[in-house]
Design goal:
Pnp Oxidase, Chain A, eight-stranded antiparallel beta sheet
Length: 165
């Protein structure tokens, strides 16, 4: 799989992300993926950055806290069924990667794998994280997205490599 610049497919990546992508992380012999539809690709601190958001209640949260790395696998083809499945089940209760019919592929620069067959991949090392302080979240966003108070932690991942199938 040829490496490409993180920015070569950034516009396409954000478009796909809004429809659903796989955020994968691994720690202590456990690998989990979850569906994400929010995130950002940019440039901060002199580095290419992929920002993702994970709620503390998610199984992925504990894994990313331990590993400090993640991959984002963006489906270029139709993987809606698997994306939906992984967004409605918890890896805490089951091996949803297998249950969704997904296959893992080894990361190129990090220990965390990608979801094979997606087509576009970002491998990232967490260089900063920030839990959303409720006091500065506008009330309309609190009402719509955080009625239970489960505020996201934002993970800023340095993009170590980007590649396509």
């Amino acid at each position: 799989m040829p490496e490409i610049s993180y920015s070569d497919q950034a516009g396409k990546a954000v478009e796909i992300l809004s429809q659903g992508a796989f955020l994968t992380t691994a720690a202590d012999g456990k690998t989990n993926t979850m569906t994400i539809a929010w995130g950002n690709i940019g440039f901060m601190w002199g580095k290419p950055i992929f920002t993702v958001m994970v709620r503390p209640s998610r199984f992925t949260f504990g894994l990313i806290e331990q590993s400090n790395e993640f991959t984002v696998s963006l489906p270029l083809g139709d993987m809606k069924q698997a994306v939906t499945y992984c967004g409605t089940k918890s890896g805490r209760d089951m091996d949803k990667i297998s249950a969704a019919g997904l296959t893992l592929a080894a990361g190129k620069k990090i220990a965390t794998p990608t979801i094979a067959g997606c087509g576009l991949y970002y491998e990232c090392k967490v260089i900063y994280k920030q839990t959303m302080p409720p006091i500065i979240v506008p009330q309309d966003l609190k009402t719509q997205w955080y009625p239970g108070g489960d505020y996201h932690t934002m993970y800023f991942g340095e993009i170590l490599t980007t590649y396509k199938d």
